[in-house]
Every structure is written in C-alpha cells, then in structure tokens.
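User: My instructor asked us to take a sequence, write out its structure as tokens, and then describe one feature of it. I'm not sure where to start. Here is the sequence I was given:
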Amino acid sequence: MAVEPLSQKEIEDRLAELPGWSVEGDRLTRSYRLGSHVAAAALVMHIAAVQDELDHHSDLTLGYNTVSLGVHTHSAGGALTVKDFALAHRVEDIAPGHGAH
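Assistant: Let's start with the prediction itself. The structure tokens for your sequence are:
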C-alpha cells in the first residue's frame, strides 16, 4: 500500500508533537546525547529493533555518546510521510529521559 507524502502544514503540525525533532533537507531528524558510549550503543540496538518491527528504517549514526537519526520514506520519493512520524514517536518512547509518557 502506497503512503502519500504529507503537506507542509501536516509536517508542521506533527513536528509540534515531537520536541527536539526537526526537518533538515528532506529528512526528519533528531540527535540524543546519552551518559556513555555503551548507553548510546544500547539505544541504537533498541531503535534497530523498532525499525524492524515497523519495517521502516532510518539512517542511524552512533557517536561516542550520541545517537542521530534521519528518516524519510523512499517509497514516497523521499518525502516525509506518516511512517516517518510513527517511527519518531516510537523512538521517543524508548529514548532514556525523553519518552515514557
């Protein structure tokens, strides 16, 4: 099933629900700073599991104590879709000190 690109207004409305996330170029992005490299590596593993579950994958970068994501929907021509924001919400739910609403 094809996913339609979101309008600029829809993107702005959804971004308002995700503090810390932004649009850079054509991607929805966020970086997290954690207490250690091991904590950052553990978060990468958790995010990878969520991405497999959703069958939607981001560019995921592990730094010394940081994790950065950049995502868009390839099947929608690289546009932002509901799939990108669903992934962002799931990441927020598992990010230490950021989720657990």
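For the description part of your assignment, you could build on this observation: The chain has a mean pLDDT of 94. Try explaining in your own words what that tells you about the chain.
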